[in-house]
Amino acid sequence: MQEERQILFELLKNEVTGKKSERDALSEDTAVRLLSLAEKHDLSFLIADGLLKSGSFDKNSPVLKEINNEIYKTIRRTEQFNHTLKIIKELFEGAHIRFVPLKGAIIRGYYPSELMRTSCDIDILVPQEDFERAIKLLGENGFKKLNVKKHHDVSLYYGITHLELHFSLLERVEDIDTLLLKAWDYVVPVTKYEYAETREYFIFHHIAHMKYHFIGGGCGIKPFLDLFVLRQHNFYNEDKLYELLDLTGLRRFYDSIIATLSVWFDGAASNGLTQKIEDYILGGGAFGTLENKMAVQSYLRGSRAKNLWRSAFPKYELMLGAYPILKKHKILLPAFYVINIFKDAFGKDAKKNRTKLGVILNQKSSAINYAKDLLKDVGLEK
Q: Are 201 and 186 in contact (CB under 8 A)?
């Protein structure tokens, strides 16, 4: 398994730096396992392309067919992404709505090819006062709304492309939200209505989002690779970045990420911390695991019992995201707790909620202690 991980990181590095592999031809079994691991982290194109360049498989190989299929799917996905992003920009420019493309929409431009950096969705920030107008505009132009407004965003679809439209970068994580809520103080104009985050703020936002997913069960390899690619381009000033990280307590987490990058892509020797991070990230896939998430939450909330309690009775801020009426009528909170429990037990997510409950009830102390040690090591302790 460790050798396959090393091959995976070598293929990823070769793809984004243009370096040629010096490895011998890989077996079909190894290739299949690599493709499976890559799929869990939404890195299928990079590994498929790397395997294709290795020339290890003849034209009748079933593995080669799978590789070509992954490449075709990525081309289709990328074309749809570009088409949708172009439409959004034109609509917002025409309606005089300020907007900020976020995350993958920016990062992909720094990869050797946009195909190498697929995105699950397009993230766009607009001012809160223009949020409803933006939703209406998109709806009138073929975008289908998936849900009601949540605590800071709404989901829409255009064909196969998912758009998350934000009026805030809020992550509901107190220490990082203080700065995420000031996003418009850290933007610069690109056109009259399109804006971009300043480079150091962009990286801060990237690290903050990694924290959000890290304490949610895992963040996958992709944000690590993104940071590696941006560092290859000298994208940001690290001293200026540290000023933002120090405002939000993220310096040690960032340093842990950089140490892990050094092991994965620069040949540095692994140590206890980087190995622990690697195991956690690779074991969790692109979005982490429920087991990891519940172990982290039990630690952060103090115990399994407190985790169960908070799962049944979320904080007011979270309830507000689901039931906006509470902003004017907080006195109704107990009634909405009853409604929420009923929905958890009998609604469309009932099966998922029972699974979550089972994970918490069957949690071992060793899993919670593992989460505790990992979070303390990377500076994300309580």
A: yes
